[in-house]
UniProtKB/TrEMBL annotation, chain A:
Organism: Cecembia lonarensis (strain CCUG 58316 / KCTC 22772 / LW9)
Organismal lineage: Bacteria, Pseudomonadati, Bacteroidota, Cytophagia, Cytophagales
Superkingdom field: Bacteria
Cofactor: FAD
Family membership noted in the UniProt record: Belongs to the ETF alpha-subunit/FixB family.
Record keywords, A-Z: Electron transport, FAD, Flavoprotein, Transport
Listed name of the protein: Electron transfer flavoprotein large subunit
Automatic annotation (TrEMBL), chain B:
UniProt family annotation: Belongs to the ETF beta-subunit/FixA family.
Domain Electron transfer flavoprotein alpha/beta-subunit N-terminal: 23-209
InterPro entries in the cross-refs: ETF_a/b_N, ETF_b, ETF_beta_N, Rossmann-like_a/b/a_fold
Name of the protein described by the UniProt record: Electron transfer flavoprotein subunit beta
Highest taxon listed in the record's lineage: Bacteria
PANTHER family xrefs: ELECTRON TRANSFER FLAVOPROTEIN BETA-SUBUNIT, ELECTRON TRANSFER FLAVOPROTEIN SUBUNIT BETA
UniProt key word Chloroplast: no
A molecular function GO annotation: electron transfer activity
Keywords, in A-Z order: Electron transport, Transport
GO-annotated cellular components: cytosol
Pfam families attached to this UniProt entry: ETF (PF01012)
């Protein structure tokens, strides 16, 4: 018996959300005596980087070092993970929620005849059956969900457990798999990647701007603060709808859902749809010149004031802290 | 060309979420139900494709009789006919099985739906349907064009997008900006009343997961306001009190 964790990587590094999933797998294994924690990585990646996955709690890393798996072809990844799952005799698969994680998990649930729970926010409770707590209604509620199958897939939401990098390097085992060409019929022709930025869904701090920023030309104020904080930048739906900022920065019910330690909202009134995208944040700071903005009700800290005055001062104050 | 769009029947995005019966049931009292916002994008793009390619467009929902007004709205927006699988949509695997069973009978070229429902947010049904039918599934799709039997798509990935090509048949989980939401016009609303809405029995009853209880998040305390001329105080609080810096 073992717990298998699907690892995603980008630009030569294992994603932080995947390391969190490994820590989740480790905590689950300890709590339920579920055996070894095995991480599986697909495509070209440095072995040293993979060994580091051990620090997050993996006992072993299986590396399918196949160039064809470099690109995230959903079917091919699902097929590869299914093979590793079966060969390793696992009973639980853990992965981080992401555009790739979701897509792979769904196909795996069917391939493995497994029960799947998405948006998991805590470790399973086995005091009476096997129950998992998950976030629903875009963070507005939780559902205790009983899982009625032997094989289980848990798609874990960010911050479900703390990332612990206190383990030791894990042995990396290279495995060759024969993935049928039929799994590669979807072709990724090109990728546009925002480079040099903190990825929003994975950011530990997020600074977002709304219509109160008055125009895209003022975004340097948001970016300056974000840079000092090491934060990702986001925006409200109106801002991405008018085209001030790219769509992938839209935070909210129908955009990116973030779960950072700190969320700073500037010039965003706090419509319920925006709050749905940020309500898993640990700490929320709202800066708005309208003291009546509904966002203040959802905030931990607030400043009533003009963004154009407050932001430069705040950036300086953060700089002074260092 | 035959297109199937899967529609969820979900509380309006502004709804206050509450539960009844000892936190075992969703409280529908005062809640307005809508077509899932992501499904609405899928439907809007499907209507455009229908007009462009002369396709037929069917909408499907897995749900009890109360979801029919939502299906009628989809018909008013431009679908030709509707199917309701008469069952409570207990989990994503169950819903996917129902859709796959209907799809097997009808051989759709393109199956579209939202990237996720906004009630349970699983984002899994499209992938499951793809696997059940042995065809590709792509999500979240923000652009979808059809040229012959080739589907050209853009898919959102963390911090960017990916351009892909695949052949039909295919399942796509959609999101903005794939198309603009369409508002039904009067002619659409009138014609929707008489368009066919077929009710079918579910295939199989196996339930892999089941919600036992619901919970609301703990109430947020009151906001601590810091004077705008003393932002250093905010930084101190974030460092020493909230411990997030």
């Amino acid at each position: 018996m073992s717990v298998l964790v699907y690892i995603e990587h980008a630009e030569g590094s294992v994603k932080k959300t995947s390391l969190e999933a490994v820590s989740y797998g480790k905590a689950l294994s300890e709590k339920l005596s579920a055996g070894e924690v095995i991480a599986v990585a697909l495509g070209r990646l440095d072995s040293g980087e993979l060994a580091n996955v051990g620090q997050a709690g993996a006992d072993k890393v299986i590396h399918v070092d196949d160039e064809k798996l470099n690109a995230g072809v959903i079917q091919a990844h699902a097929e590869a993970v299914a093979k590793v799952y079966q060969q390793s005799g696992s009973s639980t698969l853990v992965l981080a929620k992401s555009s790739m994680g979701d897509a792979v998990a769904a196909r795996l649930a069917v391939k493995l005849g497994a029960a799947l729970v998405s948006n998991v926010v805590d470790l399973p409770d086995t005091s009476n059956g096997y129950k998992v707590k998950r976030s629903i209604y875009t963070g507005k509620a939780f559902a205790e969900t009983s899982v009625n199958k032997e094989h289980k897939i848990l798609a874990v939401k960010k911050n479900a457990v703390d990332l612990k990098m206190n383990g030791s390097a894990a042995p990396v085992e290279k495995v060759d798999l024969d993935i049928a060409p039929a799994n590669f019929v979807t072709e990724i022709t090109s990728t546009d990647k925002a480079t040099g930025e903190v990825l929003l869904p994975e950011a530990d701090i997020v600074v977002s701007g709304g219509r109160g920023m008055k125009g895209p030309e003022n975004w340097n104020l948001i970016e300056d603060l974000a840079k000092e904080l090491g934060a990702g930048t986001g925006c409200s739906k109106p801002v991405s709808d008018i085209g001030w900022r790219p769509h992938h920065e839209h935070v909210g019910q129908t955009g990116v859902k973030v779960a950072p330690s700190l969320y700073v909202a500037v010039g965003i009134s706090g419509a319920i749809q925006h709050l749905a995208g940020v309500n898993s944040s640990k700490c929320i700071v709202v800066i708005n010149k309208d003291a009546e903005a509904p966002f203040f009700k959802a905030a931990d800290y607030g400043i009533v004031g003009d963004a154009f005055e407050v932001l430069p001062k705040l950036t300086e104050a953060v700089k002074a802290l260092k | 060309m035959k297109i199937l769009v899967c529609i969820t029947h979900v509380p309006d995005t502004t709804s206050k979420i509450q539960f009844t019966d000892n936190n075992t049931k969703f409280d529908k009292n005062g809640v307005q139900f809508i077509i899932g916002p992501y499904d609405d994008y899928a439907l809007a793009r499907a209507v455009e494709l229908k007009e462009q390619l002369g396709a037929t467009l069917t909408v499907i929902n897995v749900g009890e009789a109360e979801t029919e007004p939502t299906l009628r709205k989809a018909l008013a927006i431009g679908a030709d006919d509707a199917i309701r699988v008469n069952a409570f949509p207990s989990d994503s695997l169950f819903v996917a099985k129902q859709i796959a069973a209907i799809a097997k009978e009808n051989n759709y070229d393109l199956i579209m739906m939202g990237r996720e429902s906004i009630d349970f947010n699983g984002g899994m049904v499209h992938g499951m349907v793809g696997e059940m039918l042995g065809i590709p599934s792509v999500s979240p799709v923000m652009k979808l064009e059809i040229e012959g039997d080739t589907v050209k798509m853009a898919r959102e990935i963390e911090g960017g997008k990916e351009h892909l090509e695949a052949k039909l048949p295919l399942v796509a989980g959609c999101q903005e900006p794939i198309a603009e939401w369409k508002i039904p016009n009067m002619r659409g609303i009138m014609s929707a009343r008489t368009k066919p809405l077929q009710v079918v029995d579910p295939a199989g009853e196996e339930i892999a997961t089941e919600v036992t209880t619901y919970q609301l998040p703990p109430a947020k305390g009151t906001v601590k306001l810091v004077d705008k001329d003393n932002v250093e105080e905010l930084v101190k609080l974030l460092k020493n009190e909230a411990k997030v810096l």
